[in-house]
Amino acid sequence: QVQLVESGGGLVQAGGSLRLSCAASGSIPSISAMGWHRQAPGKQREWVAGIRGGGSTYYADSVRGRFTISRDDAKNTVYLQMNNLKSEDTAVYYCEVVVRRVSEATYWGQGTQVTVSS
Predict the structure, then answer these.
(1) What is the mean pLDDT of the chain?
(2) Residue 60 in contact with residue 47, Cβ under 8 Å?
(3) Across the chain, how many H-helices and E-strands are there?
């Protein structure tokens, strides 16, 4: 099995920054992709950013230019640097890791709260 441990959430003022981390451990032959999603109160979970094995990165329009996703393959860890945070970024953030074995399997972190005060 695979375990994901997230860290880095918290309370920050609008315009501030936070860095989220998500470390994967367990049976991980290789990782196809890693990403971040978020869910605000009363809303559906939405995709935020993703990074593939080759390093290609993808962002939702709402965060492009403010958030940066990166990964450390040696540590099986994905990061989300969030700058110029806005109140609408308030949500629980979940990391996603796609592990490749014979087929692919997706694992989710437990979620970390990000609260942006205006």
Answers:
(1) 96
(2) yes
(3) 0, 11
pLDDT bin (cut points 50, 70, 90) of residue 51 is: very high
H-run or E-run covering 84? none
For residue 19, give every residue at least 6 positions away whose Cβ sits within 8 Å of its Cβ, in sequence order, or none.
Answer: 8, 79, 80, 81, 82
70 close to 52: Cβ distance less than 8 angstroms: no
CA 11 to centroid of chain Cα atoms: 17
Among 18-22, 25-29, 77-81, which is the least confidently predicted range? 25-29
CA-wise closest residue to 22 among 11, 33, 13, 12: 33
Tokens of 7: 């860290």
